[in-house]
Every structure is written in structure tokens, then in C-alpha cells.
Design a protein that fits this description.
By secondary structure, the chain is α+β, with helices and mostly antiparallel strands. It has a single domain, classed as Glutaredoxin (3-Layer(aba) Sandwich), CATH 3.40.30. Helices cover 32% and strands 24% of the residues. Strand 4 and strand 5 form a beta hairpin. The two termini are 17 Å apart. Its main location: mitochondrion.
Length: 130
């Protein structure tokens, strides 16, 4: 497969193929998202990592002003628990809501986020396909 074809497939994955994340977030209410989870995939953090890879690029593509902070902590101590959460931020970085991502699959995390965010689905005629 040529590199151009791979790039087109990657761009389409972000802009066209990841349907659940094709939303416009109400920027009057929500100004950012803050994700916190551990570097390693154990203890229920795999879904958070997959969510980050699968859904956040599309969410960022259709909401370029939405600030997304990602904090992945390296945890070498098995007895120390690292939170696995998304904080939905409003004006002045005020936390509007929190979603626990631990032991959830990536699509479940996206479903929870859609329930908490004030948003509208991107109309079909505004979707970008290359």
C-alpha cells in the first residue's frame, strides 16, 4: 500500500469514519477536556488509551478551539492507584463534570461523554471526506 493511500485512510478515519465523535461541542459551556490515566494499560486503563487514539482526533478535528489536555502518569508502584478519568471543563477551567473511565471500553467512554456534553451532531453535508 502506498504512503499516500495510507495517509488518505488515516485522514478519513479522523474526519469521516469515526461517527460517534463527529459532534460540535457547545463552546459557550465547554472549553476543554482533561484526561488523566496511567501510562501502562493494566488496572482498567486500556479503554482510556483506546478512547484517546480512536475518538479524540475526530473530536478535536470538529472542535479545534476545544482544549484537550492529556496527562499519562508512569506508575511503577503496583500498590498506588492512578485515577482514570475525564474532566469536562467550563469557563476559567471550572470542572463541570467528571467521567470515570476505569474498566470501560473506548466506545462506552464516548457514550458517557456524549451524555454529559452539550453538543450537536455534525450535519452530513459538513463532514469531510478526502
Amino acid at each position: 500500500m502506498s504512503s499516500v493511500k495510507k495517509q488518505l485512510e488515516f485522514l478519513n478515519k479522523i474526519s469521516y469514519n469515526t461517527k460517534k465523535a463527529q459532534i460540535f461541542v457547545n463552546s459557550e459551556k465547554v472549553t476543554g477536556l482533561k484526561l488523566l490515566f496511567q501510562w501502562q494499560n493494566h488496572d482498567g486503563h486500556m479503554g482510556a488509551r483506546k478512547f484517546w487514539h480512536e475518538y479524540l482526533p475526530t473530536l478535536q478535528y470538529y472542535n479545534p478551539a476545544l482544549k484537550i489536555d492529556l496527562l499519562r502518569l508512569k506508575n511503577d508502584k503496583r500498590d498506588v492507584e492512578v485515577p482514570c478519568k475525564i474532566e469536562i471543563l467550563g469557563r476559567e477551567s471550572k470542572i463541570l463534570d467528571t467521567i470515570n473511565m476505569q474498566y470501560k471500553k473506548d466506545n462506552e467512554i464516548m457514550d458517557d461523554l456524549l451524555l454529559k456534553l452539550d453538543h450537536e451532531v455534525v450535519p452530513q453535508d459538513q463532514l469531510v471526506k478526502v
